[in-house]
Amino acid sequence: MDMQFNGAKPLIALFDSGIGGLNLLKVCVKKIPQADFCYVADNFNVPYGNLPAGEIKRLAFAAFDKIAKLNPAAAAVACNTVTAECIKDLRARYSFPIAGVQPAVKQAADLGGRFLVLTTVATAHSPSFKSLLYRYGKNAVVKECPSLAAGIEKNIFDLQNFFPAEAFVKGEFSSVVLGCTHYIFVADKIKNYYGVPVFDGMVGTADHLGEISGIFDHQTNSHPNVSFISGDFDKNRTIFENIYQ
Ligand code: DGL
Known about the structure:
Elements: E1 11-16, H1 22-31, E2 36-41, H2 53-69, E3 74-77, H3 80-93, E4 98-100, H4 105-111, E5 115-119, H5 121-125, H6 127-136, E6 140-144, H7 148-155, E7 175-179, H8 187-194, E8 198-199, H9 202-213, E9 226-229, H10 233-243
Helix pairs in contact: 1-9, 1-10, 2-3
The chain binds D-glutamic acid.
């Protein structure tokens, strides 16, 4: 796949604090071939999940000011933490449509039983997550993970030796919700440990992004081009090339 962006198709931009959003990019590249993609990250400030809301918003605005200059057809906040803290502010500030990611609590509730939700500290304390829990989280056990995203970001090239202890909460659960896009990189370890379905919400978000970008009806035979700007773009590109098959 050609990884250079040449501006030939409508552009969709994805933003995350670091590598987590690459998991959404992977799904989007397969589901929305009508677009080219640009990945914007802020790896040097990871984790956002331990920052105060005002600081998360400031960093997200800085990233979206860059995205706005690219004149995208749509953008996605590929980060539960930023979505939880400021998706409404981002939508109010920019004229292009913006999709967000939220923990797949409803999917877990629909499956039934007591379920575990792993999130960053900021997400767990955000009003939007509390409202989601109020609606669908009667049987949810929420576990804040203050160092898991940073641990994954740091150990991404040696994950086979990385033990995600924070994710291994004692208890009987019928499913586990990954409420941070970074956690998707250890989804297999979590699934093996609990032996239950693990939800990450990526497919639903990609579908929503395709809808709001207004280009699902375009015809194309070619692969999307993908560019990486901002943050540690060499790292992001390398990881994306590894996970994209
Ligand atoms: N990947 C981000 C999320 O989905 C957060 C990681 C961080 O704490 O920066 O919440």
